[in-house]
Automatic annotation (TrEMBL):
Organism: Haptolina brevifila
Enzyme Commission number(s) of this protein: 3.6.4.13
GO molecular function (one): ATP binding
Recorded family membership: Belongs to the DEAD box helicase family. DEAH subfamily.
Keywords: ATP-binding, Helicase, Hydrolase, Nucleotide-binding
Family annotation (Pfam families): DEAD
Designated name of the protein: RNA helicase
Superkingdom of this protein's organism: Eukaryota
Domain Helicase ATP-binding: 1-132
Keyword Nucleotide-binding: yes
Reactions this protein catalyses: ATP + H2O = ADP + phosphate + H(+)
InterPro entries: DEAD/DEAH_box_helicase_dom, DNA/RNA_helicase_DEAH_CS, Helicase_ATP-bd, P-loop_NTPase
């Protein structure tokens, strides 16, 4: 699995575990096989077979302590990036540094309400390991129909 795993971070443990469970269910596979999760005090993945691992921002930061270049992963997705926290901001800064040494690492920053231009500017600024300016390969993708689910308001009489 080394180098061929997708890491998908979530801001909260409940989100990481429930998304992993849903993905495994939709794929018709056992949780912890191809899709798994790793959160504080709870892991459900197999290092040999898991290809997409859901985790909290903090868990990925912790993994970076022993694997600073995230060599296990080919893609890192930071989901719900609009829910800014200290851990999310630290993770994004660390990922920017990792990309200088591993330009092949793909980053996906996902959000329903994010100011995408801010993140494009953040990741395009910098220099590579050779000291040369790094060109941005960032692209902004917008999904049509996202958020198009009907919303109904219900009020309780008091």
């Amino acid at each position: 699995a080394d180098g061929h795993v997708v890491a998908c971070t979530q801001p909260r443990r409940v989100a990481a575990t429930s998304v992993a469970k849903r993905v495994a269910e939709e794929m018709g596979i056992e949780l912890g096989s191809t899709a798994g999760y790793a959160v504080r005090f709870d892991d459900c993945f197999d290092a040999a077979t898991t290809r997409i691992k859901y985790m909290t921002d903090g868990r990925l930061i912790r993994e970076m302590m022993s694997d600073p270049l995230l060599s296990t992963y080919s893609v890192v997705m930071v989901d719900e990036a609009h829910e800014r926290s200290t851990q999310t901001d630290v993770l994004l800064g660390l990922l920017k540094k990792v990309r200088r040494k591993r330009p092949e690492l793909r980053l996906i920053i996902a959000s329903a309400t994010l100011d995408a231009e801010t993140f494009v500017r953040f990741f395009e600024e910098g220099v590579g390991p050779d000291g040369q300016a790094v060109e941005s390969s960032a692209a902004i993708m917008t999904l049509k129909g996202a958020g198009a689910h009907p919303v109904a308001w219900h009020f309780l009489d008091e």
